[in-house]
Design a protein that fits this description.
Radius of gyration: 23 Å
Number of strands: 35
Distance between the termini: 15 Å
CATH architecture: 3 Solenoid
Helix content: under 10%
CATH topology: Pectate Lyase C-like
Number of helices: 4
Largest sheet: 33 strands, parallel
CATH class: Mainly Beta
Strand content: 35-45%
Number of domains: 1
Structural class: mainly beta
């Protein structure tokens, strides 16, 4: 039922920890200042590492469990084929902590072939004096961020901008401001080939200095081509955005091409009082050739699945949203729904080619499928979906879309009669039918592995 995956395009690069080992550097903050970086006489401060020029195959190893204060800003002279530069704690050890205080814990600029692994990165807090990302990767290539815990930074916990071939795997980004994980472009171009796997973004409330735009996102990707977000979980984000307006979302993309979001969970996300959004998943302005498949959204303040296009964005087209589950989303945000279609673009031609199918939408708090008053678009294909709730179904003007083989299990006294209703394509079951127990149980799922197990059984 799903369209051809883009995974093979993304996965053409692989992780090689070391091809030719060159130099090992050790750091123990309890060591004397006279160390030479050897295991017997380790460095004691990040400044000593920052003065070096690292080459392919070098290893920077921190003492397990240690707390290192300052910001790591390595100089890198690495050529592909020489092996990656390793920075971190040994895999089976207790992670060391880098306390960046008011600055980044790690700042990589134009660095290639880097592995950052098994570390805790800590900042002074989004309201405690920090004004940066936790780990900033700017204009890098072939970078790998593995087994990291990042918290206490005002901007994104992990910020990847203008990078090519980056992997984030098992990154826990929490208690930051703007976002848990953010991918974007920079002045000379987009990011390319980004993989975000088995990551968690939670309790990132908002950036207290941002009064112009959304903040408090879980995982956000923009100005990027070829990106996979898989087996990730986002929850309890966006609770303290310091403005009223467009808001944050658990997991979403904007101005991005060839995006795959799959087997993810987004629940209990927020927005500020009186603001929009606060939803589970969102394909926003300028997204093309995306697949949002087999995800779970529940108990978000905003819409479970957002289909959005804003004025001034590139054309939005050829996107698939399939086999997702939304359970009781749209709990608070005005005008939200299980699935919400919105566009502020004045041209319908700039939003087209949605294939929305085989989704299961349960909503006893708001509309199941809503078309905003501003939702200009060309015909969407909406088929083989199942809806549970009182309705009406749909809400708003859907006459331009093609409906087929959809099922509505109605509870309460809703109606699908009216000038905006599709002409056929929705089969209404008997009134008062109950939501199946297996769908009710979805709100107990908190991790991606359990979600995959549920999908395999159902």
């Amino acid at each position: 039922m799903l369209s051809r995956s883009i995974f093979p395009v993304i996965l053409f690069f692989c992780l090689v920890l070391s091809v030719r080992a060159q130099r090992n550097y050790y750091l123990d903050p309890a060591a004397t200042s006279a160390g030479d970086g050897s295991q017997a006489h380790p460095f004691h401060a990040l400044a000593e590492l920052n003065a070096l020029r690292l080459k392919g195959g070098d290893r920077v190893v921190f003492k397990p469990g240690s707390v290192i204060r300052g910001s790591l800003t390595p100089k890198v002279d690495s050529v592909f084929g020489d092996g990656n530069i390793f920075i971190g704690t040994e895999t089976d050890s207790i992670p060391a902590t880098i306390d960046g205080d008011s600055a980044e814990a790690i700042r990589l600029v134009g660095a290639d072939n880097i592995v950052v692994s098994n570390l805790k990165l800590k900042g002074a807090g989004r309201k405690g004096g920090n004004h940066t990302c936790g780990l900033l990767a700017w204009g890098c290539s072939r970078t790998y961020f593995l087994n990291l815990d990042i918290s206490g930074f005002q901007k994104a916990g992990l910020g990847i901008y203008g990078c090519r071939m980056a992997v984030a795997n098992k990154v826990d980004a929490h208690d930051n401001g703007a976002a848990g994980i953010e991918v974007g472009g920079k002045e000379d171009g987009r990011s390319w080939n980004i993989m975000i796997k088995s990551c968690r973004a939670w309790s990132n409330p908002g950036d207290p200095t941002n009064f112009e735009n959304h903040s408090g996102n879980g995982i956000i990707v923009g100005e990027t081509n070829l990106v996979e977000i898989g087996d990730c979980v986002a929850w309890d984000n966006g609770a303290d955005m310091p403005r009223v307006g467009n808001g944050p979302v658990g997991i979403w993309a904007w101005e991005a091409d060839s995006v795959e979001i799959h087997h993810c969970i987004s629940f209990g996300n927020h927005t500020s009082k009186g603001s929009s959004d606060g939803g589970g998943f969102d394909l926003d302005g300028g997204v093309t050739h995306a697949h949002v498949c087999r995800n779970l959204s529940y108990d978000n303040e905003g819409s479970g699945l957002g289909i959005f296009q804003y004025w001034g964005a590139s054309a939005w087209h050829d996107n698939e949203v399939a086999e997702n589950y939304s359970i009781d989303d749209a709990s608070t945000t005005g005008g939200a729904a299980g699935i919400l279609v919105w566009s502020s673009d004045t041209s319908a031609a700039n939003m087209s080619g949605l294939n929305l199918h085989h989704n299961n939408i349960v909503n006893r708090k708001g509309p199941l499928l809503r078309y905003h008053e501003d939702s200009r678009h060309l015909a969407f294909s909406i088929h083989d979906n199942t809806f549970y709730g009182p309705g009406p179904l749909p809400t708003g003007d859907s006459r331009q879309d093609r409906f087929a083989n959809n099922r509505w299990c109605r509870s309460g006294s809703g109606s699908n009669k009216g000038p905006s209703s599709p002409l056929g394509g929705i089969k209404k079951e008997r009134d008062g039918c109950a939501v199946p127990r297996e769908l009710e149980a979805l709100k107990n799922i908190r991790d991606a592995s359990t979600w995959r197990e549920w999908l395999e059984k159902n």
